[in-house]
Design brief:
five-stranded parallel β-sheet, six-stranded antiparallel barrel, 8 helices, about 350 residues, alpha/beta, 17 strands
Length: about 350
């Protein structure tokens, strides 16, 4: 392998310091911003985030400061096909997708890696907080040094080839130390706020975004209870997700939560908080990292969303690309379309998309 690495630069502090650290380690570093946002002034003129011209200019300034080449690569079409349209479709089907996981799977560690290979690079690098290492010829992922910033949850789809050709130096540092390094070397992005919104939805209102694209599909319907009794009106199923309490726009004299979404009847089913605790699910499109296939039941720690805490569970083989997950205790608001991700202590085992709640 050569020592040329293409760094995906979002204009934020993590990818900027990634480029610096790799240059210090002796790599030939090339900076690239992946252009995924639509050709729309609403996106280009927004401040911050990874879908704006200001972020491109931040990445360009950092590259100039570090003395590395910088390019912008167009990934608009594949991003629309693999991330935006499936995101919209999932919500219309009553599920709650995670677009960052789709972006990592299809864009950053697939299409971007292929573009980097075409530039003669053997590696890509990102600002993710995770540790990749080689264990006797098998590439594995462990949690980062900074538990609060750990991003292994969104990396479970990575293949052995992708892991072999990906570098993530931020995994060895805390977020505070990354910011300190950026300040020490004079990067203006050292105190830039982290982007938390969905990158292709400027106002972070996913329901309104989907309704603008599908005004004839997103319609008002009924809030109902388990027995089908009408409790009130909702503004469209895409605005709601399992476990939601705030923003329902309904007052029943007691706390109520979204328990289920009935796409066929255009209904949002409400219930008590105890109704949204479940113990079993089926996950599809499962990928494992330390091994190729689950052949026997295995005790794991599992996370059902990015910000949740790992909880004890047992996973069972269930068809070729599926597993059954049985939690030791009830888990709050398991949601179809989200990912369930498995760990053995700090080792990332793999994960899949929640298809069914049992």
């Amino acid at each position: 392998m050569n020592n040329r690495v293409v760094v995906g630069m979002s204009g934020g502090v993590d990818s900027s310091v990634t480029a610096y650290l790799l240059k210090e380690q002796g790599y030939e570093v090339i900076g690239v911003t992946m252009q995924v946002w639509p050709e729309d002034k609403e996106y280009e003129e927004r401040e911050g985030g990874c879908c704006s011209l200001s972020s491109v200019e931040d990445a360009r300034r950092v590259s100039d400061k570090l003395g590395i080449p910088f390019y912008v690569m167009n990934f608009r079409d594949i991003f629309d096909e693999k991330v935006i349209q499936p995101f919209v479709h999932e919500y219309l089907e009553g599920r709650t997708p995670n677009p960052c996981i789709a972006c990592n799977k299809f864009i950053k560690f697939d299409a971007f890696l292929k573009k980097a290979n075409a530039l003669g690079a053997d590696y890509i690098a990102t600002g993710h907080y995770a540790k990749i290492y080689n264990d006797k010829g098998r590439f594995l992922i462990k949690n980062s040094e900074d538990d609060k910033k750990d991003q292994t949850y969104v990396l479970y789809n990575m293949t052995q080839y992708q892991l072999e050709h990906t570098l993530m130096p931020c995994g060895d540092y805390s977020k505070n130390r990354i910011r300190e390094i950026a300040k020490e070397i004079g990067l203006s992005v050292h105190n830039k706020k982290d982007s938390e919104e969905i990158c292709f939805i400027p106002d972070n209102d996913h329901g309104a975004y989907i309704k603008r694209q599908n005004p004839e599909v997103v319609k008002e319907g009924n809030f109902v209870d388990d027995n089908g009794n009408i409790l009130g009106k909702h503004k469209g199923i895409v605005y709601y997700t399992i476990g939601q309490r705030k923003g329902l726009g309904i007052a029943l004299g007691k706390p109520v939560f979204v328990k289920d979404i009935n796409v066929v009847k255009n209904q949002v089913v409400l219930g008590s908080e105890e109704d949204i605790f479940k113990t079993q699910l089926i996950a599809d499109n499962v990928n494992f990292i330390p091994f190729d296939k689950l052949n026997n039941p295995m005790k794991v720690k599992a996370k059902i969303r990015y910000a949740s805490q790992p909880t004890e569970a047992t996973i069972y083989p269930n068809d070729n690309s599926k597993v059954k997950v049985v939690f030791k205790n009830g888990v709050r608001a398991i949601t179809k379309g989200q990912s369930v991700v498995f760990y053995d202590d700090d080792l990332l085992l793999g994960g899949g998309i929640i298809e069914k709640i049992l």
